[in-house]
């Protein structure tokens, strides 16, 4: 009996240790996925719901496994090789190709930072705070956090900010969407309509972004994940993919109910449209905090990814665990990206259209990004860690379809 009692006591302790191990490994996937639902993605989803109702719901669901397939490759590349995305491109394809990849990354990173700071500006405008103050304060806070010399601190603060986006899911249930209308309308996909295709391209660009690939591959390295952590790291990515697309779907549904068939001109209109369903104060605070959380975590991830990618391409010391004097070029690039994004927003007027245009730009650049990712998976990994059989051909087919869609968007603009 005493032995049985001891076994009963030890079982919870064992489960607790497993849970603590799981929590210690989780982070890179959830962080990058919460950042994926950034201010630009939220605005794009909101405009999609407002203009096309539930017709943009199905694409959000379809993009969920695609997002996982793409980011799962970065997990294997990072953990197995112990090298960042830019480093692998430089080693396998040469410095010129690495430079092309980094230029693509830096353009999309600065563009993404514009969307994040525009989200901050839009939220502050709802509360009567000048964007000069809010954007400047956000820039300083993010720079200080990034150069603090601790990856774990950055990850914990980032996830804490990103979880505010779950307010969007709460809002979806609050507005009481019609299930019958949703299930009927979501199957009506007007692919022959050019305006629908433009917003669809923006949604694809809002879900699969170049900086995500660079970030997660670098993050699993900075966090020190090893081969035995691979299954948990994949689960981390899967959970993140489900959460981020659930948030996107929620935003589409909320605006489909609250603001049907009307274009959005300001970020404040999102909260105003939902106010009749939730109340003015609740809509401002819940959606404002959701947008602010989306903006801040994404600004953090985007700037880190850009700095990692540039540093890897040129062989510069790069780690969030390094001190400033040991990685001054890395931290300088990180700081510069923030400053460029902030200045661009402070000089811009139509922030909603600017966000959508940037997401379309991401879709156009996808052939370069996904092309390198698939080639690295085939060249840089040992045979036992490469995709095989039906799964390999399915992932290649999906990625090629997304790349063709990006090229089609470029031709049809």
UniProtKB/TrEMBL annotation:
InterPro entries: NRAMP_fam (IPR001046)
Keywords tagged on the record: Membrane, Transmembrane, Transmembrane helix, Transport
Intracellular or extracellular location(s): Membrane
Membrane topology qualifier: Multi-pass membrane protein
Transmembrane segments: 51-70, 97-114, 120-145, 157-176, 196-216, 237-258, 285-308, 329-349, 361-381, 393-411
Stored PANTHER family: NATURAL RESISTANCE-ASSOCIATED MACROPHAGE PROTEIN 2, SOLUTE CARRIER PROTEIN FAMILY 11 MEMBER
Protein name: Mn2+/Fe2+ NRAMP family transporter
Organism from which the protein derives: Alicyclobacillus tolerans
Species lineage: Bacteria, Bacillati, Bacillota, Bacilli, Bacillales
């Amino acid at each position: 009996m005493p032995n049985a009692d001891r076994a009963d006591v030890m079982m919870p302790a064992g489960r607790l240790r497993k849970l603590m191990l799981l929590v210690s490994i989780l982070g890179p996937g959830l962080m990058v996925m919460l950042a994926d639902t950034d201010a630009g993605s939220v605005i794009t989803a909101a405009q999609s719901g407002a203009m096309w109702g539930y017709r943009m719901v199905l694409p959000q669901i379809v993009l969920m496994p695609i997002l996982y397939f793409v980011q799962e490759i970065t997990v294997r590349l990072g953990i197995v090789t112990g090298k960042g995305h830019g480093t692998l491109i430089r080693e396998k394809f040469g410095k010129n190709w690495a430079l092309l990849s980094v230029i693509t990354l830096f353009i999309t990173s600065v563009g993404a930072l514009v969307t994040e700071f525009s989200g901050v500006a839009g939220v502050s405008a709802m509360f009567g705070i000048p964007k000069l103050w809010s954007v400047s304060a956000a820039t300083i806070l993010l720079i200080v956090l990034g150069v603090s010399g601790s990856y774990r601190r950055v990850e914990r603060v980032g996830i804490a900010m990103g979880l505010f986006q779950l307010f969007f899911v709460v809002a979806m249930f609050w507005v009481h969407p019609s299930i019958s209308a949703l299930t009927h309308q979501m199957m009506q996909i007007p692919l022959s309509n050019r305006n629908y295709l433009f917003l669809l391209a923006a949604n694809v660009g809002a879900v699969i972004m170049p900086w995500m690939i660079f970030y997660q591959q670098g993050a699993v390295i900075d966090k020190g994940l090893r081969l035995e952590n691979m299954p948990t790291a994949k689960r981390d990515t899967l959970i993140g993919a489900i959460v981020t697309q659930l948030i996107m779907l929620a935003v589409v549904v909320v605006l489909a109910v609250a603001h049907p068939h009307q274009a959005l001109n300001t970020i404040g209109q999102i909260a105003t449209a939902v106010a009749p369903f939730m109340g003015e104060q609740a809509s401002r605070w819940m959606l404002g905090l959701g947008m602010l959380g989306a903006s801040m975590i994404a600004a953090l991830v985007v700037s880190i990814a850009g700095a990692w990618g540039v540093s890897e391409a040129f062989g510069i010391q790069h780690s969030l665990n390094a001190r400033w004097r040991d990685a001054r070029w890395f931290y300088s690039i990180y700081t510069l990206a923030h400053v460029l994004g902030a200045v661009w927003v402070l000089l811009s007027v139509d922030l909603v259209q600017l966000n959508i245009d940037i997401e379309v730009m991401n879709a156009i650049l996808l052939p370069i990004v996904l092309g390198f990712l698939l080639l690295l998976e085939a060249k840089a990994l040992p045979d036992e860690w490469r995709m095989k059989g039906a799964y390999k051909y399915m992932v290649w087919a999906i990625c090629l379809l997304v790349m063709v869609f990006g090229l089609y968007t470029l031709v049809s603009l």
